[in-house]
Amino acid sequence: MSRTDLKLSSCTLAVHDLNKALGFYRDVLGFEVRDDGSEVMRWVSVGPPSQPDARIILESPGTDPGVSPADRQAIADLMAKGLLGRLVFVTDNCDATFERIEAAGAEVMQEPINQPDGVRDCVFLDPSGNLLRFTQPRQIVHALTSRQAHAARGRQAP
Fold first, then answer.
1. Which of the residues 7, 52, 132, 146 has the least number of beta carbons within 10 Å of its own beta carbon?
2. How many CB atoms within 10 Å of residue 33?
3. pLDDT at 141 over 70
């Protein structure tokens, strides 16, 4: 059996209000709008400018005619608890990312902290209750910490 190089091209995220979600991902996170499928069931795909081939498809779960009322309610209940959608993003500066998103009014779930494995991360909820984690890889955390320590030593009186 041969091994194939697989890449993620898109994922779907359920949202309560497509226009609110679009505003959050475009205006707060700085994502580009990739597609706006406004035919029978409206959906919008967005993605970070640094990943032109990646798409997050935002759609309301209630618009699919194949979803039963009971399933719509189950989806709404899971969304309300923040249990349905989760995305993890990588950033080169967790603290700056946190400050920018918090200033835009997003709901904070976790302020930036260093995890035991060396990753620094923070967590927000999007307007639909989807959990968004922003991680700063270990080597970047270490480099920033070293620079901060060096800068602090430079400010100390001899």
1. 7
2. 13
3. no
